[in-house]
Write a structure and sequence with these properties.
The chain has three domains: about 130 residues, 3-Layer(aba) Sandwich (Rossmann fold); about 180 residues, NAD(P)-binding Rossmann-like Domain (Rossmann fold), CATH 3.40.50.720; about 80 residues, ACT domain (Alpha-Beta Plaits). Helices cover about 30% and strands about 20% of the residues. A seven-stranded parallel beta sheet has the order 8-7-6-9-10-11-12, with helices on both faces. The two termini are about 20 Å apart. It binds 1,4-dihydronicotinamide adenine dinucleotide and 2-oxoglutaric acid. GO terms for molecular function: (S)-2-hydroxyglutarate dehydrogenase activity; NAD binding; phosphoglycerate dehydrogenase activity. Catalyzes the reversible oxidation of 3-phospho-D-glycerate to 3-phosphonooxypyruvate, the first step of the phosphorylated L-serine biosynthesis pathway. Also catalyzes the reversible oxidation of 2-hydroxyglutarate to 2-oxoglutarate. It holds the Pfam family ACT_AHAS_ss.
Length: about 400
């Protein structure tokens, strides 16, 4: 366990996968200048070496922060996922080590919804195939199998931020929206919830997936679900590559049961732009293949950079864990006239007593105390009026069950 009472100019920030420069600017504006910025993700070995020195790391969807990798992250206090999905991080392992994880839950929502709507229109008009033919010198000027979006049924699986945003856009185009979600969700506009996935599949002209990667969604869309789709309908997946059985989809496209597909995410994705992309879908011209760029627009990336870097800075400067995805949430006022001590511990009986015992035995006045717990950990923030906090911090660190204790400087 490496505990921290580091001055800001000693805090090292490692930013991977070409996160938007807006993140770098924000860190610098707040006095963080030890920033290593890399355009790509890293191999496991490189990641383990670099993460050992980092206090804060920023990643997108490629970097896998497993328990094994986090074991090297002795100094790490926070992880920023510059995206929506956080499945690439072992969240409980990070929590167990006292590492807070943040993401950007809706900065790229609109970008994904727009891409999916555009793909729905392209698929209804059979554009992928006509486009591929024209590139080969072919000329398929025929209306056969081409339809307007107006009046067609869009079936949305997962009616969260992206699904519901898409629902609004699709209705503006005159589509009829049906959705399936495991939770009760407020229907937007005239969208209609359906009670089973099969109901949705039997009605939809276009089916689109917007679920997170979870054990329940792993391969949730396979041969059986494909066989329940309307003949000639099309499938879009811009959620996660583990959700759809790609071999079964390739079969459904080859047999022409489906008229097309648009796939943005894959079970195996290249680590960088210089690695070859392999997939059974390659060469199937009725399938739009995109390299996981659903959220890759200038607007989304710039906003994500600002949002996630802002959360990391707030945590580092002030201790606030508001909107953390794996940690008890504490929103804290500024601590201009006080020293602030943070204590992260296993949630066992007697912890708060032990902390308060240490404080009460000191001569310090407490000007504020904040506590949040979940089933696994507790997070206590104590504002004190003393300049002499080092001995107290050491005693707090020594309390059995302490995961991390540090002072904000
Ligand atoms: N292709 C890309 O570049 C991007 C992909 N994504 C992916 O899209 C996913 C969805 O994003 P948001 O809409 O923001 O998430 P969200 O959390 O707002 O919505 C997800 C919805 O799926 C529902 N759901 C969960 N399990 C389900 C199941 N088994 N069956 C049906 N519904 C289920 C949830 O109840 C929730 O309503 C993200 O988790 C991420 O993996 C997000 C952004 C960009
Ligand atoms: O832009 C990225 O790197 C990943 C986008 C994504 O999949 C997400 O936001 O969950």
């Amino acid at each position: 366990m490496a505990d921290l009472s580091l001055a800001k100019d000693k805090i090292r920030v490692l930013l991977l996968e070409g996160v938007h420069p807006s993140a770098v600017k924000l860190f610098e504006r707040h006095g963080y200048h030890q920033i290593e910025y890399l355009k790509t993700s890293l191999s496991d070995a490189e990641l383990k070496e670099k993460i050992a020195d980092a206090h804060i790391i920023g990643i997108r969807s490629r970097t896998q922060l497993s328990d094994e990798v986090l074991a090297y992250a002795d100094k790490l206090i926070a992880i920023g996922c510059f995206c929506i999905g956080t499945n690439q991080v072992e969240l409980d392992a990070a929590k167990k080590r006292g590492i807070v994880v943040f993401n950007a839950p809706f900065s790229n929502t609109r970008s994904v919804a727009e891409l999916v709507l555009a793909e729905a229109i392209m698929l209804l008009r059979r554009i992928p195939h006509k486009n591929a033919m024209a590139h080969q010198g072919g000329w398929d000027k025929s209306a056969t199998g081409s339809f307007e979006a107006r009046g067609k049924v869009l079936g949305i699986i997962g009616y969260g931020h992206i699904g519901s945003q898409l629902s609004v856009l699709a209705e503006q185009l005159g589509m009829q929206v049906r959705y399936y979600d495991i939770e009760d969700k407020l229907p937007m506009g005239n969208a209609v919830p359906v009670s089973t996935l099969d109901d949705l599949l039997s009605e939809a002209d276009i089916v689109t997936l917007h679920v997170p990667q979870t054990p329940q969604t792993h391969m949730m869309f396979g041969a059986r679900q494909l066989s329940r789709m309307k003949p000639g309908s099309a499938l879009i997946n811009a959620s996660r590559g583990t959700v759809v059985d790609i071999d079964a989809l390739a079969e459904a496209l080859k047999s022409e049961r489906l008229s097309g597909a648009a796939i943005d995410v894959f079970p195996q994705e290249p680590k960088g732009n210089d690695e070859a992309f392999e997939s059974p879908l390659r060469g199937l011209t009725q399938c739009i293949l995109t390299p996981h760029i659903g959220g890759s627009t200038q607007e989304a990336q710039e906003n994500i950079g600002i949002e996630v870097a802002g959360k990391l800075v707030r945590y580092s400067d002030n201790g606030s864990t508001l909107s953390a995805v794996n940690f008890p949430e504490v929103s804290l006022p500024a601590h201009t006239d006080a020293r602030r001590l943070l204590h992260i511990h296993q949630n066992r009986p007697g912890m708060l007593n032990a902390i308060n015992q240490v404080i009460s035995e000191s001569s310090m006045n407490v000007s504020g105390q904040y506590l949040q717990t979940d089933e696994a950990i507790g997070y206590v923030v104590i504002d004190v009026d003393s300049q002499d906090t080092q001995a107290i911090l050491q005693r707090l660190k020594d309390i059995p069950g302490t995961i991390r204790a540090r002072e904000l400087l």
